[in-house]
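Folding Query — how this chain folds
Tokens — whole-number codes for backbone shape
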Amino acid sequence: MAWVYLFSAGLLEIGWAIGLKYTAGFTRLVPTILTLASMAASLALLGLALSSLPVGPAYAIWTGIGIAGTAILGIVLFGEAATAAKLASILLILAGIVGLKLTST
């Protein structure tokens, strides 16, 4: 169950990172509330996951999911450049996440 918590926490990290863009500097109420709720839920789920997972790999996986997902959604939602170097870097992050998962208990 800890891995489900961790994966869910990573998805919520993507949600709040993308949500920050929609808050317009915390001037828009609904996006701000949703972003803050995503932050809190992400941290809560990470805390639950850390009760039985090693902190190093779990934290790296959490941030890796957030980094890769946010970068991909930046390309899709905001038209950010999808250069070969950026896409290769995202693939390296994903490979690192898989490697950490395979080597963790």
Summary: Residues 2-102 form one domain. Helices lie at 2-22, 29-50, 55-78, 84-102. The chain has a mean pLDDT of 95. The CA atoms of residues 74 and 80 lie 6 Å apart.
